[in-house]
Amino acid sequence: MAVYTKHPVAAPPVAPAREATGHLLVRAYSVLTMFGVFAHTAVYNLLGVTGAAVVLGVLTLGVLAIWVTAIAQERPTRFPWRRLPWAAMTYVALALLSVLWSRWPGATMLTWVLLATVTVNALFVATMLTWQEIARALSSTMKVVLGLSLAIELWVALIVRHPVLPNFVDVPEGKIDPHLYWVRGNLFEDGRIQGIVGNAHTLAILCLFALIVFGVLYAAGVRRRGALIVWALVAVVLLFKAASATVYLSALVVAAVLAAALIMRGTTTPAQRRTVYLVFGAVAAAGILTALLLRDRLLALLGKGSDLTGRLEIWDAVWQRAIQRPFAGNGFSSPWVPWDPAFDGWIVDHGLSVFHAHNMWLDAFLQLGTIGVVVLAVAWLALTWRAWFFAVDRPRWDLDDRRPYSPLALLPLLLVAVLLVEGLAESAPLMLWGWMLLVLLSFKIKAVPLIGVGVGERTPLITHGPRARRVP
Fold first, then answer.
1. Least buried of 205, 313, 346, 469, by fewest C-beta within 10 Å?
2. Helices 245-265, 270-293: crossing angle, 10 deg rounding
3. 10 alpha-carbon distance from chain centroid
4. Alpha carbon of 203 to those of 49, 322, 373, 423, 424: distances in Å?
5. pLDDT digits (tens, 9 = 90+) for 68-86
6. Higher pLDDT, 69 or 40
7. Residue 348 forms beta bridges with which residues?
8. Helix (H) and strand (E) counts for the chain?
9. How far apart are CA 368 and CA 326, in angstroms?
10. In the beta sheet, which residues pair with residue 467?
11. What's the pTM value of the predicted model, to 2 decimals?
């Protein structure tokens, strides 16, 4: 309870720094920027290429303004340059450098600006929010995506009663390919739904992200857990209707990784950990071997053909172009710019020019060659390594080794598991929300390796008169 005094020396009472109005606005703006990245395709389908670029540009300018203002006014601490995710930053620099030898320099510069914009937004969220606030911001973002997806599907199914094209263009006469629609209106019928993001697979992966975030927050004992259960049910329904085989596989991997992390948390000695690692390795090897031997049956069970829904043809075409420049690649472009002559009509699926390789490693090899693949592998290996021990090591910063584990520490590991599986069949981890999560999680784990401890996890400043000073 606040205590007030009229003593002339005492400073007037102020709100805690983390609950001050300015910080609440920063948290709200972080949700807005994350929505702009996670639901970028929704903005694109609503406003077109130019409109989507303007929205993302304005959001990024706002991020830079908030960042500069916070540093100038408060100066809470020196920016942790050494904690930056340098492997990911090297990939960004290499992407820019590739314009010197790119076969599509215009596409390289255009998509590099997008990559740099997402990187800046990710660094902003990582430096301005605590771990709990990041989880809550992700939760709020996913709720907005789920809510708008359900709303637009209901609107199309019950009111419009016919599919909707991007930018609300009038549907032409005759039959057109269903892949051209923004929303098909299949919520109460057979067929997949796309939600506000306009893509069934993207909607499914965001639903899986939502379930992970909601589950972690529920386990952490946040307020209004009943609302989390309701949102989780919405996510399950939309995930089922989106019907993505890759996401179903990702969910199984997430369950396995979660079980492994919880088992590892139960170990108390190094010998127990070695035993668990050996068991995990044997189970993983057996699972991979079984998947290879029963490949056709598993694909049929997931509703996929032996060609992985045309992916083998895409991979072959990309490989043939990639090996022409195997060392430094053909030039960065994530996504492929469909109107660039190098990509327009190169690989066509359902009448549309394909805009990525459907495999992030092959895509990186095409664009930045062996160098890019190595740098990308280092970035993901570093994040996976840190995320694993962030999740399974007991929080400790002194002699006390009995502190309880935090459910929030599982969040990076589970998100990384999804992204690594996603990268085998899609190139999403190289762009937009995939890249944002890579940079955000890498930077945050390096800068704040313990939940609730370190700069950015506690109030680093107190206000005393007109100036600020550090908490001793």
1. 469
2. 160
3. 46
4. 20, 30, 28, 16, 18
5. 777 666 555 567 788 899 9
6. 40
7. 353
8. 14, 4
9. 8
10. 464
11. 0.90
